[in-house]
């Protein structure tokens, strides 16, 4: 079984546990990483043609080197491994009062990282992905260091319409990076808040060369397949319930404060 099949297997197990639909792209449509946005657009358009009560509300999404996975609500790169299949994806989504939030992203030392992200199923998402996909054609003068990621980042920076509906979440929620090489401890040379901890949903290996992918992921795939209780914590025994509740409550407070400031400035 290839390294990609093994990572996909951890996602299949998670999806089956919660009954999430699962989409997998194994045939390239566009060049390289741009397949990510192409398949997302395809799924979005299919869902938006359905009656409102039958369509998915969110996509949770991921792609790496020709393989893409989407399940209920989000995007996952294929260099991601589910370590705690007890975590429902819904825990990360904004409460209904945050109906203006359509995309959840995370940041690391390089800025925004789009390895894993939840995306709301609506016309805004179609417009966003279309803009990102077209960016290298409409703005050939702009260098894109990480092609698809940089294009999305530029679109968000250049368009308030898109930027206003994005929330940046703690990276560990659904995009945590590897800790030590053996997965058994934290890496003292990397920021702790970006590293996967016991009980976290998954681990992501961005930037890992193809030649080193199998050796790098192997210890974490072993952990995933061992199903150890210390890693597969129940949701209520993790930090997620409190952190997500506090995060969205804080956002409500921030929005209210901004509204008060705007009102004061109008006088």
UniProtKB/TrEMBL annotation:
Gene3D superfamilies xref list: Spore Coat Polysaccharide Biosynthesis Protein SpsA, Chain A
UniProt entry tagged with the keyword Glycosyltransferase: yes
Entry keyword Transferase: yes
One Gene Ontology term from the biological process aspect of the record: protein N-linked glycosylation
Matches recorded under Pfam families: Glyco_transf_34
Gene Ontology MF terms in the entry: glycosyltransferase activity
GO cellular component, one term: Golgi membrane
Protein keywords: Glycosyltransferase, Transferase
InterPro entries per the UniProt record, alphabetical: Glyco_trans_34, Nucleotide-diphossugar_trans
Family (UniProt): Belongs to the glycosyltransferase 34 family.
PANTHER family hit by this protein: ALPHA-1,6-MANNOSYLTRANSFERASE MNN11-RELATED, GLYCOSYLTRANSFERASE FAMILY 34 PROTEIN
The protein's name: Galactosyl transferase GMA12/MNN10 family protein
């Amino acid at each position: 079984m290839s390294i990609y099949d093994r990572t996909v297997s951890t996602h299949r197990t998670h999806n089956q546990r919660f009954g999430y639909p699962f989409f997998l792209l194994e045939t390239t449509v566009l060049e390289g990483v741009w397949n990510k946005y192409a398949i997302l657009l395809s799924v979005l358009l299919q869902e938006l043609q359905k009656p409102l009560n039958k369509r998915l509300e969110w996509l949770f999404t991921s792609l790496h080197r020709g393989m893409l996975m989407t399940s209920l609500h989000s995007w996952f790169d294929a260099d991601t491994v589910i370590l705690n299949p007890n975590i429902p994806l819904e825990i990360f989504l904004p409460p209904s009062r945050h109906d203006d939030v359509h995309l959840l992203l995370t940041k690391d030392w390089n800025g925004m990282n789009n390895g894993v992200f939840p995306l709301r199923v609506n016309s805004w998402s179609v417009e966003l992905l279309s803009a990102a996909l077209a960016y290298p054609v409409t703005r050939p003068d702009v260098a894109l260091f990480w092609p698809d990621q940089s294009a999305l980042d530029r679109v968000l920076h250049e368009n308030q319409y898109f930027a206003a509906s994005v929330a940046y979440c703690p990276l560990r929620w659904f995009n945590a990076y590897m800790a030590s090489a053996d997965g058994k401890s934290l890496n003292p040379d990397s920021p702790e808040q970006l590293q996967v901890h016991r009980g976290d949903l998954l681990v992501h290996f961005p930037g890992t060369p193809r030649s080193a992918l199998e050796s790098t992921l192997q210890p974490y795939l072993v952990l995933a397949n061992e199903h150890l209780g210390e890693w597969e914590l129940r949701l209520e025994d993790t930090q997620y319930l409190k952190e997500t509740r506090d995060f969205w409550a804080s956002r409500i407070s921030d929005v209210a404060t901004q509204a008060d400031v705007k009102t004061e400035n109008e006088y």
